[in-house]
Every structure is written in structure tokens, then in C-alpha cells.
Amino acid sequence: MGRGGGDGGGAAGRGGGGPRVDRGLWRGLGELGFFALRLPEAEGGVGLGLPEAVLVFEEAGRALLPGPLVATHLAAGAVPGAATGETVVAAVDGGLVEWLTEADVVRGDAAGAVPLRSVDPLTPLHRVPARRPAPDPVAILLTAAEQLGTAARVCELAAQHARVREQFGRPVGAFQAVAHLCAGILVRTETARAAVYAAAVTGDPADIAAARLLADEAAVRGARDCLQVHGGMGFTWESEVHLHLKRAWVRTQRAGGVTVSEELLAAALASETV
User: Would the CA dihedral through 207, 208, 213, 217 be positive or negative?
Assistant: First the structure.
């Protein structure tokens, strides 16, 4: 494992005016057991399992909580201070690293990392010339849970705006085109919710891959349709809608990306037909 900046948070990233990890928030999450949720109580953890972790990460996605949440959660028990939020942990994920310069510890080989201009202003990215190991199924599932949170939030935002925004003397939600957009967001969100929750219970890699594909679609398409409902207002800095779309785009590249999940699911389906 390599380390980030010697001051425990990437001075270069701060000096460049990029996004920063709120250390107070991070420690607060640690105190609440966010990172130690799946650690046994005998090791100072909460002693819960994947279903509970999925619920927590869903809410993190709904709130657009920034930072390397999945990497730090997975490091709890393996990296000192990760479980309590005293240590911010980033991880090399294929050829990308999120929050590299803000991390105290980087898991994986980040040598030769080059900063990228991230589409999400709240998620700094670096590219590394690394091979792509098999992704951790738990990382895939927790990413899907965050995507589910985004999908649920944009569903709420679209329905709320459709009720209060008026055109031609009527709420825009009364128009069939807008109503169909909102209905589509809801259907994709609830379909993804069923898949993510089921995968959290079974822990089966194929179930996790299917959940990830459905959650990615629900988050990205839902945020795009929510922007369509909002119109130009959705792209303003006063609105969170465009931030949900940008975060959802970034998450689709995590844990092997969509392609790896498609291949995992296809292989599982093919083996069942033999």
C-alpha cells in the first residue's frame, strides 16, 4: 500500500483548490459505525451484515455524500483508523483512483497516477497504468446501493417539481409526456431496489452483477429524465439534479464498470443453460 500526502490529506489537492474530504464529517461517520458496520463486535465493529450496509450506502447515495466511502468501508479492520474514520482510505479501482490526494492510505499500486478532469466536481479522479484485477463483489454491491440512493432521490425531485411547476395554468405533471417520464423513473428505481436488496441477502455474484446493472440504469436514466422534467433549472448550481447525474456517471466506472458485471451475469446465465 502506498500513502497520500504526508500531512494525511493531500496538500497538493488542497492547494489546487480541488474538493476536500471533510475530516470532521469522516470522524463523525466513524463514530456512528458507518465504516465498521460489518466488523464483528469483538473487533470493535457494529456486527451487522451486507443488508444493513446496503441500506446505509443507499442513504449515502441519496445525500450525495462525498469521499471514498466504499474504499474506507472495505478497509475497516485491515487499515488502522479506517473503522473509526480517523484514516481516509482510497483504492486503485482498475485504472482509476478516487480521492487520491486526499487519502491517508491508498490500497493498490498508484504509481504513475495522472490527474483527470472529473465530470463530477465532488469526486476527484486519477488514472493509473495498472492492470485490472477481479473487482470485489462487495464493492460492486455497495456501489449499486449508492446508485439506488441517487435513483430514489431524483425520483422524488422529479415528482416534486412536476407538481409545483406550472405551464399554461396547469402543473407540468398533468401533461402526459412529463407523467410518463416520472413513471419511468419510479419503475426503474423500484426494480433496482428489489434487485439490490435481494443481492444483499443472497450475496451471489450473479445477483450482485444484475443488481449493479439495474441500479446503474436507474441512476443514470433517472437523473437524465429528472433533468428533462426540470428543464434548464436542473443544470444550475442551485439544483442538485445535475450533481446526481454526474455522480452516477462516475460510479458506473467503479468496480470493473458495467462491462465486467455484464460478463459475470452472462457467464452465470450460460452455465445454467448447459
Answer: positive
What is the pTM for the complete model shown?
0.88
Joined grid coordinates for residue 107: 490500497
Q: How far apart are CA 67 and CA 13, in angstroms?
A: 13
Distance CA 87, CA 258 (A): 29
Look at phi and psi of residue 17 and say left if phi exceeds 0, alpha if psi is from -120 to 50, else beta. left
Contact, 36 vs 30, CB < 8 A? yes
Q: Which of 118, 69, 128 is nearest to 250 (CA)?
A: 118
3-state SS of 48-59 is: CCHHHHHHHHHH
Which three cell numbers mark 216? 446503474
Q: pLDDT tens-digit profile of 144-169?
A: 999 999 999 999 998 888 877 757 77
d(C-alpha 265, C-alpha 268), whole Å: 5
Neighbours of 167 (CB within 10 A): 11
Q: Kindly report, residue by residue over 21-37, the tens digit of the pLDDT.
A: 999 999 999 999 999 99
| CA angle (2, 5, 11) in 5-degree steps | 155
- In whole angstroms, what is the distance from residue 26 CA to residue 103 CA? 12
Distance of CA 82 to the CA centre of its chain: 18
What is the residue type of 177?
A
Whole-number Å distance between alpha carbons of 121 and 261: 26
pLDDT surpasses 80 at 6: no
Beta-sheet strands, E only, within 16-138: 89-93, 96-98, 105-107, 114-116, 125-127
pLDDT in tens, 46-91: 999 999 999 999 999 999 999 999 999 999 999 999 999 999 999 9
8 A C-beta contact, residue 166 and residue 172: yes
